[in-house]
Design brief:
Layout: H1 3-12, H2 14-35, H3 42-71
Helix pairs in contact: 2-3
Length: 80
Amino acid sequence: MTLREFFDYLSQNPVIVMAFFLGIPFTALLAGFFGKGEGHLTPWKYLYSALIYFVCVPGIFAAALAVYLFLFERAAIFST
């Protein structure tokens, strides 16, 4: 599967993207509710670090893709 096919698949199935980006704040809300000051303990540390990665990795990927398209492909960023 190429990157273009992956983006086409996600554009045809927006429920997956919505579930991903709505699931992260919902999970953080539930973790804050059930954790109640135990965020420094081992299971909660792993959950919080996973949530941070789930938020940051798509943003870093989007920024890297935009730089790649702008510098190497000489394509307009907003046309893709």
